[in-house]
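Q: Predict the assembly, please.
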Amino acid sequence: MIELQPNALCFGDEFPASGAPCLVHVEGQGLTITFLSDREGVVGHTESVGFSDLTISAGGLDHNQLVASWSGSVEQRTLYLKSPELIRAFRQAAPAHLNRPLEQAAEQVRQVRQRHRFVWGLVGGTVFAVILGLWFGSDVLVELAVNRIPIEWEQKLGESAYREFLAGQDVMKEGIAVDAVKEMTQRLASQVPNNPYRFDVTVVRSDVVNAFALPGGYVVVFTGLMKKAESPEEVAGVLAHELNHVLRRHGLERIIKQLGFVAVVSIVLGNPPGLGGAMKQFGIELMTLKFGRAQETEADTTGLDLLYRAKIHPEGMITFFQRLTEKDEGRVEWLSTHPMSSARADHLKARLAEMPKQQSEPFSFEWTKVRDALGVSSGSAP
Amino acid sequence: MKSEILYPGAFPMARVELGNGEQIKAESGAMVACSPTIDIESKMEGGFLGALSRKFLTGEKFFFQTLKASRGAGEVLLAPTVPGEIVVLELDGVNEYMVQKDGFLAGADGITIDSQMQSMSRGLLGGEGFFILKMSGKGMLLLNSFGAVHKIELKPGQEYIVDNSHLVAWSTTTSYNIEKATSGWVASFTSGEGFVCRFRGPGVVYIQSRNPGGFGAWVRQFIPVTE
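A: Predicted assembly structure:
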């Protein structure tokens, strides 16, 4: 028994439909084909075919096989050659009249490959472009998504975080300090055209220097921040900044950015209620949400404008920010979420300088009494 | 290595006799029973990346199981998950088959399994995904189908049209184009065929008498909706 390693498949009426494995040798005048006659691997008969009798084309699933057919002594034969060495040998030995069909077959293979590459390249390029577009066009998409979220839903989201937070805090229910903060908020909110939010302000007894606004208009001011402020304008400055985070829906923008594009797409396509669940899943806490630099700048400038419109002296906002930054003492948490840079202060100062001078209107409360109520001895500077 | 199909028909089982030291690879979970001389190992065919690409690109399993008669000759009983026939092919080193992703049951050690990228039109419309399995090498190959297996033998140039979801395996000497089942777009889908594959010989195409996707859709209507 001779072990024969077939290198081609031959098709013809007498062979099985899957083709007869055979060993093809390229010789000077043509091909010699040795068949494996049966399953035991016994070498069967050998056939020869001259180059002059062959018709050549490309075939197979990927058009990468060389198909040689001829009319044999008994019937039509078709040979499928796949091995590159064999195809190379065939091309070298083939006489001139086969060059054209061989070249055509090779061209066909090249075309198929090129088309394959082109289509996949196109698809890859498109996918890449879409990803790139999403990456750089993300702000537009985020904005689109944010605009689709109804205010009520935003309020629900903010309210649940607000209640959760207040449950663990010492809330100041009434008093001159609470009235003062409410007055400031009202004066600011009354200057917002078409304000869809009803601002809800709570004063929390805590030495932490902080204030924040949750999506939907829920504002928390810590007494620590009020104690640090030398004038009501300074507190109003912080409030104006925080209210503008709400009005500009910065919180939602951040949430959506953190949730990623899946969320954006689902909202743009119209499924906002799913986002609450998604947020819980992603473990995003509203309280720890940090705003981006662009958002801080926006809240600064719009905050400044709001103060101006409300006839509250805007200088307080800048001086308070600066003083907090310079005297980096204790628990000034507000700064950790609102890093103050000199560039930010300069920007605000420049903007303030451009504004026409106007007479500020005082608040109805006396700041010294508020400070007394908060337990700040009037003698000591904050 | 010898194989025999027990209980041919809807619920067949393949018995493979392994000589001492011989081994066979099978789809993970395919082994039903075996002699105590057989060791079962799991293997990432084609290395980690090969297995990974197979898993993610073709939907095949990450691991194959290798059944090795390391402690003497023995036999292995193998069965597919779905009801349907098992077909035995013998590869001799030159004939190669493309196999749809659920079609592979087991193969001799000499069989090489690759995932191969299809052309865009075949990938999009062929219903097999962009990557299918290519079986080459030498030795026995066991394929399984959903329903009965039917073998279509094509002479050179002969054509045959097959609904794409009924494909099991086809030899690489064939070629095919995806086309609409009827001349019009609407009729193509309302006829329930959508796209079909026009195969051109020479070669062999194995098809299955049932369509797994169609069966799934049919079963779905009987599943009670809980809510």
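Chain A has two domains: 8-110, 138-374. The CA atoms of residues 56 and 98 of chain A lie 8 Å apart.
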